[in-house]
Design goal:
Number of strands: 11
Number of helices: 20
Strand content: 5-15%
Distance between the termini: 62 Å
Structural class: alpha/beta
Radius of gyration: 22 Å
Length: 433
C-alpha cells in the first residue's frame, strides 16, 4: 500500500534522459532528472549518495523506503520470432518471409517518424542531415508526409566530405537547408560550458556534444525550430559501428549490441544539450516499437555480412521508396568522424589544443591523480580536469568511459582506428555477392 507521500520515478527504455535519486544511510532522498552542480553541492554535505536508475525501471518511494522494479515492457526483451530470415522459403501467400519483414519494417519506420513529427504542431520541425542512411530515411519520410517548413542542418569543417551528400539530401526533400561551418578552435572554447551541461568527461560524449552544441546554438539564434529529428541510435540497434566487423561470432556481436543499448551515453548527451536551448530532440530509431521489432530477428540475421555493417537492415530497405541505392549501400561513418575530411580530421585539433592546456608533469602523474577512469590522452585529461572543477569529487558519476569494442584501440573514434590500418577512404559497400 502506498502512503500519502509516495513518489514514483520512471525512466524510459531508450534512456534519452538520465534519472537518479539521492540515498542516505537511513532514508531516501528526492528523484532528480539529470545532475546539476547546484543540486550536488546542496546535498553533498548531507552525506547523500547519488544512485542512477537503470533503463526501463521504476523507482518507488514510500515514507523513505526506495527500491526498483523493472518494467514489464522493455526494448531489451523483445519477442523472439526465430528462423533464418535471409534464406527462408516463400510463404503460402507467395511473399517471401524477407519480403514480409521488409514491409513490416518499412511500415514501422514510417509510423514512428510520422507520429514523432506531430510533436510540434505549431512550431518548426528540423532534421540533423548528413549524407548517410539514418538521417536520409527520416528526411524522406518527413517529405512524403508533407511536413511544412522542414529545416535541415549540416555541420562540418570546410573539407567535410559529407557536405555534398547533405546538400543533395536537402534538395531531394525540398527542405530549407542550413550549412553550419565548424571551426574547431572556436568550438573548443565552449568545452567548459558543454561539460557542465552534459555532466561527463567521456571524450566521445564531449566530441559529439561540441557538434550538437554548435548546431543548437545556431538554431537558437537564427532558426525557429522546436523539434529536432536525429538518426542517432540506429547504429546501436543495428550494430553497425565499424568495430562490430571484428566480432568473432554472433554471440559476441549480440552482447555488444545489448551493452551499448543499455549504456546510452550519446542519447543523454544529445538530450541535455538540446534541452538547454529549448529544443526537443527526437530519436525515431530508438522508439521501443522499432527497437523491439528489429531485435526480434535472430542475432545470426543481424550480424555484418560480406564485410558490410547493418547488412540485414540495408537488405530490408533495398528497392524501397525510403532510400536510394547510392545512399543505402554507403559505408557508415560516425557523426564526429564525418564532420571533416580524412586528411584534416578536426579531432586532431582538439587533441593539440588540449595538449597545450595540460602541463606535462601533471599528465605524467595521471595514474596517481585519477585512479578511476584514468585518462589515456591529454584530451581526456583536460576534459577530466574541467569536470573535477565543476563537479568536485563526483568522478564516480561516470562509471566508465567510451572505449572501442573488440579491443581495437583506445580512442573512441573509428577513424583513428582506420588511420592505424592505413585506410583513408571509405567507398561504397554495395555487395558483389
Amino acid at each position: 500500500s502506498s502512503g500519502i507521500n509516495a513518489e514514483y520515478g520512471v525512466r524510459d527504455g531508450t534512456g534519452s534522459r538520465d534519472l537518479c535519486y539521492l540515498e542516505y544511510p537511513n532514508r531516501s532522498g528526492p528523484v532528480l532528472a539529470g545532475l546539476r552542480a547546484s543540486l550536488l553541492n546542496h546535498y553533498q554535505h548531507k552525506n547523500g549518495q547519488i544512485r542512477h536508475v537503470p533503463l526501463g525501471c521504476i523507482v518507488y518511494n514510500d515514507r523513505g523506503n526506495t527500491w526498483r522494479r523493472k518494467m514489464h515492457a522493455s526494448a531489451f526483451q523483445p519477442p523472439q520470432y526465430g528462423g533464418d530470415i535471409l534464406t527462408a522459403p516463400p510463404c503460402r501467400t507467395g511473399i517471401s518471409l524477407l519480403g514480409q519483414m521488409r514491409m513490416r519494417l518499412r511500415n514501422i519506420i514510417k509510423q514512428i517518424i510520422v507520429a514523432r513529427s506531430r510533436y510540434s504542431t505549431i512550431g518548426k520541425v528540423g532534421l540533423l542531415l548528413s549524407g548517410g542512411l539514418n538521417s536520409r530515411v527520416i528526411g524522406n519520410v518527413l517529405r512524403d508526409e508533407q511536413v511544412k517548413g522542414l529545416k535541415t542542418f549540416f555541420i562540418g569543417t570546410k573539407t567535410a566530405h559529407e557536405r555534398a551528400g547533405a546538400e543533395n539530401g536537402a534538395k531531394s526533400i525540398s527542405s530549407q537547408h542550413h550549412d553550419i561551418m565548424l571551426v574547431a578552435k572556436q568550438a573548443f572554447e565552449d568545452v567548459p560550458k558543454i561539460i557542465e551541461l552534459i555532466e561527463t568527461y567521456d571524450s566521445a560524449s564531449v566530441r559529439k556534444a561540441i557538434l550538437l552544441y554548435t548546431v543548437c546554438k545556431y538554431i537558437h539564434e537564427k532558426s525557429a525550430v522546436d523539434v529536432l529529428f536525429c538518426g542517432e541510435g540506429l547504429d546501436d540497434v543495428a550494430g553497425s559501428h565499424i568495430f562490430y566487423k571484428n566480432a568473432k561470432n554472433a554471440d559476441e556481436y549480440d552482447e555488444q549490441v545489448e551493452f551499448n543499448l543499455k549504456r546510452p551515453i550519446g542519447r543523454e548527451v544529445y538530450d541535455k544539450i538540446a534541452s538547454w536551448f529549448g529544443i526537443t530532440i527526437v530519436f525515431p530509431f530508438l522508439d521501443p516499437l522499432f527497437t523491439a521489432h528489429y531485435l526480434s530477428f535472430t542475432k545470426e540475421d543481424r550480424v555484418p555480412r560480406f564485410g558490410i555493417e547493418k547488412y540485414f537492415l540495408r537488405s530490408c530497405l533495398d528497392h524501397s521508396d525510403l532510400i536510394t541505392e547510392e545512399v543505402l549501400w554507403k559505408h557508415h561513418e560516425d557523426w564526429v568522424d564525418s564532420a571533416s575530411s580524412f586528411n584534416k580530421f578536426w579531432v586532431k585539433t582538439l587533441k593539440k589544443l588540449s595538449t597545450v592546456r595540460v602541463p606535462t608533469e601533471e599528465f605524467e602523474k595521471r595514474t596517481e591523480i585519477y585512479l578511476h577512469n584514468t585518462p589515456l590522452s591529454t584530451e581526456e585529461f583536460y576534459y577530466r580536469d574541467l569536470f573535477e572543477k565543476i563537479f568536485p569529487e563526483q568522478f564516480a558519476l561516470v562509471p566508465a568511459v567510451n572505449r572501442p569494442s573488440f579491443n581495437v584501440g583506445t580512442d573512441p573514434s573509428p577513424r583513428t582506428w582506420l588511420y592505424t590500418h592505413n585506410i583513408y577512404v571509405l567507398t561504397s559497400c554495395i555487395p558483389s555477392v
